[in-house]
Design a protein that fits this description.
By secondary structure, the chain is mostly helical. It contains 17 helices and no strands.
């Protein structure tokens, strides 16, 4: 292993367990939970199966946390998925995974900024007429706050996460206080929707969708090199955040299914709005719009904080420009932060973030497979290395979650062959580049 101790460079160990939990929960619990319950119910028209799928998504996260807790606490460097992949499988795979997740984060930053602006636009007409300009202003504001330093980003993340969890629980309380089905009238005219027989493919597609809504569970690993006690805090934060998120998703969906007639839930694009409007009238729409905006902003802050850490990790290993290692007094990698924001700006105004986001779907799933595979490579290559947390159920549970991810990749590629071809093309590009850079580094080390 090229580096068995943390390579933090200019990054500062300022972060602790509260931030680690908040950044995972705050990144996962975003605008997806506002729309997903209705879309999943429409896709899988059986309330029992819907709840089981949300539970299965939580189990998936726990199995992934089992792997991530070992390898990210074992190599506590900032950089996320890239770090263990590069250590276990070499420069080529590390480069591919690093670039894939960086581009995906950039596209997500553009998409979330637009989502926040669109939700605000339902309240303020001027914003509705200037969504892209507002999205740019939102992204630049969050970037500027994080530019100041890690402390500012940390407190924004903790405060926004606590607030949106409390507001979500308030919505759940309102929904549970209603007579069953009482909010269905707010959806409009509801006709019984004929449900086709639920097949295995439908269930798998629903599970794919739900796993996407759980995405972001891993965000704390991007800050491993800045945690005060990474060996202790990374495993704890991953599992505690997984418990919180799974419980939130289960209770929100249960409350919505109870408050809305299931057919009404299936045709509702914003089921929470129907519940709140049934309770307090038209003002409920304003509340839900503000809640959705807060959801987006909390997720955006976590993503904007994570994005530069990938370039920082790549630069540490000579796979990106050394200027990405520039860190200001506040502990922020400023050049890497600016690079991600600058690339997101044209995506906001061109709308091409949708294309990039879809294209990255197969690649991020592939990157997740490689990430789990690096667990086995590190176990084989460095059995003597200290592991603050050892994955439970080795090798059965890690092998099982690897097979699950491979199946998800296969399903995605079958549904979207173009993304599969692009994935193979990027692998073909990264392999020779990674081999060349590794050869150069070995020559320099020998000299």
């Amino acid at each position: 292993m090229t580096n068995t101790t943390p390579q933090t460079g200019g990054l500062q160990r300022r972060l602790g367990l509260p931030f680690a939990i908040a950044v995972c929960v705050g990144t996962v619990v975003g605008t997806g939970i506002m729309r997903a319950p209705g879309e999943i119910a429409n896709l899988v028209p059986d309330p029992t199966i819907v709840m089981l799928l949300w539970l299965a998504g939580g189990i998936y996260v726990f199995l992934m946390c089992n792997v991530a807790a070992e390898i990210s606490s074992m190599i506590p460097r900032s950089g996320g998925h890239y770090v263990p992949v590069r250590e276990g499988l070499g420069d080529s795979m590390g480069l591919l995974v690093g670039w894939t997740f960086w581009i995906a984060f950039v596209a997500v930053n553009a998409a979330i900024s637009l989502a926040a602006a669109e939700f605000l636009g339902t309240i303020v007409p001027w914003i509705a007429a200037n969504v892209k300009v507002t999205a740019l202003a939102i992204m630049l504001t969050i970037t500027a706050l994080n530019w100041v330093g890690v402390e500012e980003g940390r407190w924004i993340q903790i405060a926004s996460t606590v607030l949106k969890v409390l507001l979500l629980l308030a919505v759940v309380g309102v929904a549970l206080a209603m007579p069953p089905g009482d909010a269905a009238s707010e959806v409009g005219k509801v006709v019984s929707v004929n449900a086709e027989p639920i097949g295995i493919l439908t269930v798998l597609v629903g599970l794919q969708f739900i796993i996407a809504v759980y995405d972001g569970w891993y965000t704390t690993i991007y800050f491993a090199g800045e945690d005060k006690e990474p060996g202790r805090n990374i495993p704890r934060s991953l599992f505690q955040a997984a418990v919180i998120v799974t419980l939130i998703y289960l209770v929100v969906n249960w409350a919505l299914i109870r408050a809305l007639d299931f057919d009404a839930l299936r045709v509702s694009t914003l089921p929470m709005a129907a519940v709140i409007e049934a309770a307090i009238g038209e003002r409920g729409g304003v509340f839900v719009a503000l809640l959705a905006t807060l959801m987006a902003l909390g997720t955006l802050n976590g993503c904007i904080m994570s994005t530069p850490r990938i370039l920082y990790g790549l630069a540490e290993d000579g796979l990106f420009l050394k200027s990405a290692l520039t860190v200001n007094r506040g502990g922020t990698p400023t050049i890497a932060l600016a690079a991600g924001t600058l690339l997101a700006i044209p995506l906001i105004f061109s709308g091409s973030y949708v294309f990039v986001f879809r294209l990255m779907g197969a690649l991020t799933l592939f990157g997740t497979c490689v990430y789990v595979l690096s667990y086995f490579a590190l176990r084989y290559r460095f059995p003597e290395l200290r592991r603050p947390f050892s994955a439970r159920g080795h090798p059965v549970l890690p092998a099982f979650i690897l097979l699950v991810n491979v199946a998800l990749v296969a399903g995605y590629v079958i549904a979207d062959p173009f993304s599969g071809l692009v994935m193979m093309g990027l692998i073909a590009i990264c392999l020779p580049i990674g081999l060349h850079l590794g050869h150069q580094r070995r020559q320099v080390a020998a000299q």
